[in-house]
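Service request form, structural biology core

Requester: graduate student, group of Dr. S.
Request type: structure prediction, single chain
Budget code: on file
Notes: please return the result as structure tokens.

Sequence provided:
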Amino acid sequence: MKTDTLVYLIDEISINRFTTTTGFMLKKISENFDKVFILNFVSFKNKFNFFINLNKNTVVENNDKSQFKLPKNVKLININTDYELNQFCKNKNVIGIDLLGRRMADLPIHILLAKNKIKLIQITNIGNIQWGLKINPKYFLRGFKYYFDKKISKIIYYIFGYLCLVPRVEIRFISNSNILKSINKNILKKLFYKFRLLKTKKIINVNSISYDQFEKNKKKNSEKYIVLLDHDTSSPDDVYLGNPNKINKKAHFKELNIFLKNLSKTFKKKIVIALHPRDKLSEKKKIFSNYKVVKYQTPEYINKAFLVVFFESSAIINAILLKKKIISISSNRLSANMMDGSLRYQRNVGIIHLNIQSSINFEKKNLLQKLEKAKYKYKNFIEKYIQPDKNNVGHLKIIKIIKKEFFKK
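Core staff response, request fulfilled:
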């Protein structure tokens, strides 16, 4: 008899980056299943990265350490060949929590998953805003390849899914309530969804991971620091598209440090710099030498924040749910995509936006009034993107459904 087995499917060069965004859910799943596996296809995928390799210049620091430790019943396995996955799947009904991409380089992985009859689940309950990247006209050929790969891949996966050459997603758990609303408003999409003809067979609204963390840690909330969610100026997609090549980092970080100094002086609060998982801790400690710099501890410091400042970061969802004072910032020195990301949160959430190169009024009373007033606008965003499922705890609902749908009693 085959054993029902739950696995995470990833292609990460750093396991710490994986656990930064999924550690909370991974821990909860490990508490409800006897054994959980993480299958990492990063080496397998590298053999097919001949068209576009977004991680070509990505380097992980030797001392890149996270406070998160894998639970004892979770095992990490690196999949390097077809044979290794075939052997793993022997005598197992594998249910895969899918964190893989859908580019051309990922296609051989998905074909291999289909051969081994792996059923896919997606858990996409971050709650952040998604948008497409802009192309730098000076790198038009790269941009053309990037979008050609993205658009053609979407068509290929769609066709291959119906031919059973790649697995379709059985269930997708989401916190963006607009997706199901959009389907129900479109007669054709609604019909396709009813008969399970879309690329995802079933979509279920759940509260975001931020909501679950808030329920767990709401007693630890304080207002001790001003926290900067620092941006990654070298994101793989942005670098490939040629967007950050002309950034004068020295001038940019000088202006950013002056801005932070003024905020600290105005509110008499210490500054903490929370880094992006891809960022280099050693490098940023030199840049922000006057402040405490942390990595893989962003949620903890958002909980302790009097004010959260950010360029563009999915971690801001925690701050919105906690109704923290928030400022989105930008700079003309950064890429158009970074600017676009910052402004989107201003438009969609109502967060105050400041350009650090502009003349800013740091008068305390005036700034506090604007920050407090902006909080009233969070409610609509929270209901749409973070808490669409009333007061139901997201991970409990997800685990219950996974057990019911895929695991024999």
